[in-house]
Amino acid sequence: MAKSEHIPVLASVVLEVLAPEKGESYLDLTAGYGGHARLVIEKIANSSRATLVDRDSSAIKTLAKEFAGAKIIHSDFLTASELLVKTSTKFDLILADLGVSSEHLNNPSRGFSFQHSVPLDMRMDASQELTAREVVNNYSEANLAEIISRYGEEPKARQLAKFIVANRPLNNTIELAELAKQVWPVHSKVHPATRLFQAIRIEVNNELGQLEKMLPRALDLLAPGGRLAIISFHSLEDRLVKQFLAEHASGYDAELSLITKKPITASKNEIAFNPRARSAKLRAAQRK
Ligand SMILES: C[S@@+](CC[C@H](N)C(=O)[O-])C[C@H]1O[C@@H](n2cnc3c(N)ncnc32)[C@H](O)[C@@H]1O
Predict the structure, then answer these.
(1) Among 21, 24, 208, 259, fewest CB within 10 Å belongs to which?
(2) Quick check: CB of 8 below 6 Å from ligand 1?
(3) Ligand 1 centroid to 215 CA: how many Å?
(4) SS3 for 54?
């Protein structure tokens, strides 16, 4: 899929819960190729009120071209939010649409693909040190089993970890994906390497660590009356978001009120149109 074809997930729900008004300020912590940003900026009607963050330099190049007036930050969202807190900036609208972009999954050279034989990479930011090659070839069997089970929710994690260790060194994505096929000789429509690749990707990019530490900073950055929306794609991510929002929305000194009591998921229609929306869960809250 071309970059311009990236379809923003739960787009109408994002507009409904953020309810952007003309002149409000907007922080997009995972701006990607600007799908959601384009819609929100249209409503706030002033791109210079927008701050767009992404850790991927390819996304940043596209954002810089399209949103000339916006402030664009090439960084992981934890570092970016810490920096913004230091400058005492506040935002009326904050969005994080977690995970990978279609560019990551569909551009074979990024090393996320098990359809093409490419070096094991999976870094969202090519300047990061840790790569999938390092995880797969150097982590202990026990560590791999834990990661594959927790992040991939893979029932055969231990067997898969054993296979990986027995077949090292693994040099490319197809070699890794073939091991998943051996563990799951008969499989459904979902490629047997899907959960394994998700797990390795989450580890390489420290996705849960980033989210857990970013959430309190996002709250610091939210102006009174400001709205925060998070879209997650994994039960561990959703649990972190749910607990964080619930904790700050309870008690007499609560800083937030929940906009969504339950997570909002995509309609059947949206999923048919955009399969990535299948596991999306959106939660939102407003600063008091
Ligand atoms: C699902 S895409 C976002 C798509 C975007 N909302 C749109 O509509 O085009 C997720 C983006 O977040 C970025 N990303 C993921 N984790 C990040 C992090 N910890 N810090 C900064 N960017 C991150 C990825 O590089 C990717 O471009």
Answers:
(1) 21
(2) yes
(3) 15
(4) strand
Quick: pLDDT tens for 99-108.
Answer: 998 888 888 8
Q: Look at ligand 1, atom 15, and give the residue with the nearest C-alpha.
A: 99
CA distances from 162 to 78, 94, 185, 229 (A): 34, 42, 16, 40
Atom of ligand 1 nearest to the CA of 76: 20
DSSP state of 256: E
Helix 157-166, helix 141-152: angle, nearest 10: 140
Copy the structure tokens of residue 182.
Answer: 């051996």
Atom of ligand 1 nearest to the CA of 56: 25
Determine if ligand 1 sits within 6 Å of the CB of residue 6: yes
Q: Whose alpha carbon is nearest atom 27 of ligand 1?
A: 32
What's the rounded Cα separation, in Å, for the pair 255 and 224? 9
Count other C-beta atoms under 10 Å from residue 105's C-beta.
17
CATH number attached to the domain at 3-103+207-287: 3.40.50.150
Task: Report yes or no on whether pTM surpasses 0.85.
Answer: yes
Q: What separation in Å is there between the alpha carbon of 167 and the centre of ligand 1?
A: 33
Q: Which residues does 88 contact at the CB level (< 8 Å), separation at least 6?
A: none
Instruction: Quote the Cα angle for 237-54-91, to 5°.
Output: 80
Nearest CA to ligand 1 atom 24: 100
Domain boundaries, the chain: 3-103+207-287, 129-204
pLDDT tens, residue by residue, 113-162: 888 999 999 999 999 999 999 999 999 999 999 999 999 999 999 999 99
Q: Whose CA is nearest to atom 21 of ligand 1?
A: 76
- Whether the CB of 122 sits within 6 Å of ligand 1: no
Other CB atoms within a 10 A radius of the CB of residue 252 amount to 4
